[in-house]
Amino acid sequence: MDSTRRFLFWLLDGTRGGPTRVRLLAILAKRPLNLRQLALAAKLDYSTVEHHIRLMEKHSIVESVGAGYGRLYALTDLPDARAYVMEKIKG
Q1: What is the pLDDT of residues 26-68, one digit of tens each?
Q2: Is 79 helix (H, G, I), strand (E, B) or coil?
Q3: Which of 21, 35, 49, 86 is deepest in the core (most CB within 10 A)?
Q4: Which domains does the chain show, CATH number per domain?
C-alpha cells in the first residue's frame, strides 16, 4: 500500500470521524455544495461538517471554489484520492 492509500485509510477508516467523512464525500460525489447545503443533506451540525471538510481540504481530498458563504466544495481530481474515495462510497 503506497503512502497516499495508507493516509486515506487512516483518514477514512482508521479514525472515529472516518464514517462521517465518507458520508460527506458520498454526498459531494453527486454535486458540489456549500457547507450549509452539505450539513442539511448529511443531517449534521454545520460546525461538524465544517471541521471535517476543512480537514479533508487541508489534505487535498476535497477542493473548493468561490469565496465566503457561497464557497462550493467538491471531490478533488487527484486520481489516487478520488479512486479510493469512490471505492469507499461504493462499499
Answers
A1: 999 899 999 999 999 999 999 999 999 999 999 888 999 999 8
A2: helix
A3: 49
A4: 3-90 (1.10.10.10)
